[in-house]
Amino acid sequence: MDTYRLLLVGGSLRRGSVNAAVLTTLAAIAPPGVITTVYEGLRALPWFDPDDDRLPLDPAVADLRDRLHSSDGVLFCTPEYAGALPGAFKNLLDWTVGDGMYEKPTGWVNASTSYAGAQYAHESLRRVLGYLSADIVEPACVQLPVPRVSFGADGVIVDPDLRAGLSGVLSAMVLHIAAVRRRD
Hints:
Elements lengths: L3 E7 L7 H12 L4 E6 L19 H11 L3 E5 L9 H8 L10 E8 L6 H13 L3 E11 L14 H24 L1
Parallel strand pairs: 1-2, 1-3, 3-4, 4-5
Helix pairs in contact: 1-5
């Protein structure tokens, strides 16, 4: 059986966020052969400064890039804040310019407790990832309203329809990565 390594990256610093619930659920429902790792280093990243983007890298930046390089694909889950990507999450993306996201199969879930679905974050993320030359996996890019009642105290989404949608995101990533491997 082939193995697929997916890095799950959240864009929220808030503990107990809807986005954390999505990532926790993605990890919990990953099928056999899909190894997920939830990136926990967002808070530790220094603010991006091009003058600091040289060796030796800050350990948090080196860790982020190592995790990106060792993954087969990346799934982001970010909220929208003030009509755009949250600053800490955009900072993470800035650290990947030129190293980490180039041609990396990438999808995202923009989760929101409202039915607006974080549409501006969705558009912003697409624009930024385009500049990074990420390999955007369209069927794995979704806006998802996740009402707080849909996940339990353990942070896992229990709503079967939402879980099915997230399962579809994982499947789209795996199918795409498998196709890339066959081409290479």
